[in-house]
């Protein structure tokens, strides 16, 4: 029976592991660098939207929220807010959010495309024109975490700034732009979740992590094994 040459076995194992995980290690480094260099507030798109303007309300002139609750059985929350400078009551009902005119108590219809354009234009901080407005019923890749429908409003610009608004209330749901999309792609490569881009404990990542660990252990073993071999060679030469 042939004797197993462990140094050769370990060296070949180390070499093949290095070839298999080397590319992923490079991707981990590059994607990690991108995610560290770009500030997280920039990724979130905080610079794309204006901070809401706080304005006082004349509560005495508004419909009491009890009327809204009575009109919408099962309402869990009623909140006072504004829609295009108009005070409205936002009722969270079992069927979804509903808006009521806070002055008259009249239920408001969902915003039209023209109102969505006006709302998006008011929220957006840039000067680019609106190039597309779509009511989506299927979630794009960049909005997989949110269930449609929602309005997608895209503005002109190198970074393709895009706002997503609620079809029931016109509220801002999310914002996306080129740097966010780059971050999302880098995150996908970093965690090796090529489907949902959210599972940080997926099988591919676990295999790559343990393979990298095995490569490091085998490399350390080869390093330690090389020292006595060198000493033996020097002794023989003497």
UniProtKB/TrEMBL annotation:
Which UniProt key words apply to this protein? Membrane, Transmembrane, Transmembrane helix
Q: Where are the transmembrane segments?
A: 16-37, 207-227
Checking InterPro entries in the record gives:
PepSY-ass_TM
Per the record's keyword annotation, is Transmembrane helix included, yes or no?
Answer: yes
Question: Known Pfam families for this protein?
Answer: PepSY_TM
- UniProt protein name: PepSY-associated TM region
What organism does this protein naturally occur in?
Answer: Edaphosphingomonas laterariae
């Amino acid at each position: 029976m042939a004797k197993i040459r462990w140094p050769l076995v370990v060296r070949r194992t180390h070499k093949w592991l290095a070839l298999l995980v080397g590319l992923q290690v490079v991707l981990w480094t590059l994607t990690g660098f991108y995610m560290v260099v770009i500030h997280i507030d920039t990724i979130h798109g905080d610079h794309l939207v204006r901070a809401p303007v706080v304005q006082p309300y004349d509560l005495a002139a508004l419909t009491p929220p009890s009327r809204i609750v009575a009109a919408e059985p099962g309402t869990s929350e009623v909140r006072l807010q504004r829609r295009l400078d108009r005070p409205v009551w936002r009722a969270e009902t079992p069927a979804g959010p509903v808006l009521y005119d806070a002055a008259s108590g009249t239920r408001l219809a969902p915003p039209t495309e023209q109102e969505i354009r006006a709302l998006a234009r008011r929220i957006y901080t840039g000067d680019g024109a609106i190039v597309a407005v779509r009511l989506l019923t299927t979630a794009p890749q960049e909005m997989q975490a949110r269930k449609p429908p929602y309005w997608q409003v895209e503005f002109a610009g190198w970074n393709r700034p895009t706002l997503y608004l609620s079809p029931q209330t016109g509220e801002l749901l999310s914002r996306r732009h080129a740097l966010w999309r780059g971050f999302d792609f880098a995150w996908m490569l970093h965690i090796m979740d090529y489907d949902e881009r959210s599972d940080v404990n997926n099988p591919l990542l676990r295999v790559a992590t343990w393979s990298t660990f095995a490569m490091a252990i085998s490399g350390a073993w080869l390093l330690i094994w090389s020292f006595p071999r060198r000493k033996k060679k020097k002794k023989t030469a003497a």
